[in-house]
Specification:
The chain has 362 residues and is an all-alpha fold. The chain has 17 helices and 2 strands.
């Protein structure tokens, strides 16, 4: 908004000229969302406590200590993330950029779906929310529209192709099937973050780490000079998503202030579905879907642990892990919650560095 409002006066007021620098607006977006989170956080959490009374329903089949330690903690804290992220993005991003609106639509759409899921769980006082079929159908519909818009905006073979890390300008053409692929990326990322969100701070920090990687990716891919130097596929206009990712980092850090162990609020599906969808949409727009699988490898690992557990149990009646997702397995083994969370953060940092390395090794 500020970018468009001040554009006619850039040559008259020196400060307004700063708004034409993507780096400045990205930094401002991060700080703005952080401040919004800090300002609104306490009052929003108090309101959630008043409305929810008994807090998030705790699964009886989960780790036993959760029934004692986490009872009464309110959920739907993802609202704080979405408010801060949306406010900051609308304030600092170029609102004429189609990529910004496509990614924001996926984020808010998935967040609304997650909020409906959380609300039904609170009303029913159990962990059964929106029907899985309805949830997947809604995610698919949003993803298809966003992927189609992104592909049309990018245009050409690049718009409907999959870029391969480590290889120079190699694209796997998907043609009309690309929106389906893009949808699967968004849905997969969304549900993977949702599965990871099981301990205080476990999901939000890896999300911040992956978003930090995509700040650089969006900026580099959107800049022809840097893209040519690194032999990346240049996507004009996609650099504006650096502002969105920076706002996501700020809102994530603000939420972590309240979500760190012991958490005073959980993000719920409101936050986890939205954050995963946001990362997936950014990856599709920047032609970095495979890089997302690397940098977000922790989310992939958690998801695979659930798939393996269900598959093997149905075939043999035995479990591979003491409990899935994977972080619950280590809880059952007696690891302290902060130990699990911090070690998973370290893994996420390592995977992020590997993902960044693919930008240079080509």
């Amino acid at each position: 908004m500020l970018y468009l409002l001040t554009r006619p006066y850039t040559h008259q007021v020196l400060f307004f000229n700063l708004l034409h620098y993507l780096t400045f607006r990205s930094g401002a977006a991060c700080l703005t969302s952080l401040v919004v989170s800090f300002v609104l956080g306490p009052s929003l959490i108090r309101r959630l406590r008043q409305v929810q009374k008994n807090g998030q329903p705790i699964r009886a089949l989960g780790p036993e200590r959760h029934l004692i330690e986490k009872i009464g903690t309110p959920t739907m804290g993802g609202l704080l993330i979405l408010i801060a992220l949306t406010t900051s993005t609308l304030l600092w991003a170029d609102l004429e950029n189609v990529y910004v609106w496509a990614v924001l639509a996926v984020t808010l759409g998935y967040g609304l779906l997650g909020a409906a899921d959380d609300y039904r769980k609170l009303v029913r006082r159990n962990h059964h929310g929106v029907s899985p079929r309805i949830k997947l159908a809604a995610q698919a519909a949003l993803g298809l529209v966003a992927s189609y818009v992104i592909a049309r905006t990018t245009g050409g073979a690049l718009g409907t192709g999959i870029a391969i890390p480590l290889l120079k300008h190699v694209l796997i053409p998907l043609g009309p099937a690309f929106p389906i692929f893009g949808t699967l990326v968004m849905m997969g990322a969304s549900n993977a973050v949702n599965l990871t969100d099981g301990l205080d701070g476990l999901a939000i920090v890896p999300t911040i780490i992956v978003a930090s990687v995509f700040v650089f990716i969006a900026y580099l891919v959107g800049n022809r000079i840097f893209a040519d130097y690194l032999e990346l596929d240049n996507v004009p206009g996609v650099g504006e998503l650096a502002v969105f990712c920076a706002a996501l980092i700020g809102s994530g850090l603000g939420f972590l202030w309240f979500n760190t162990w012991p958490a005073t609020v959980f993000m719920g599906d409101t936050g986890s579905l939205a954050l995963g969808g946001a990362l997936g949409a950014v990856a599709v727009a920047t032609k970095s879907e495979i890089v997302l699988a690397i940098t977000g490898g922790l989310f992939v690992l958690e998801t695979v642990s659930v798939i393996v557990q269900v598959f093997w149990y149905k075939r043999t009646g035995r479990r591979v892990f003491l409990m899935a997702p994977l972080h619950h397995h280590f809880e059952k083994k007696g690891w302290a919650e902060p130990t699990i969370v911090i070690r998973f953060w370290i893994i996420s940092v390592i995977l992020a560095l590997v993902g960044l390395a693919t930008l240079k090794i080509r």
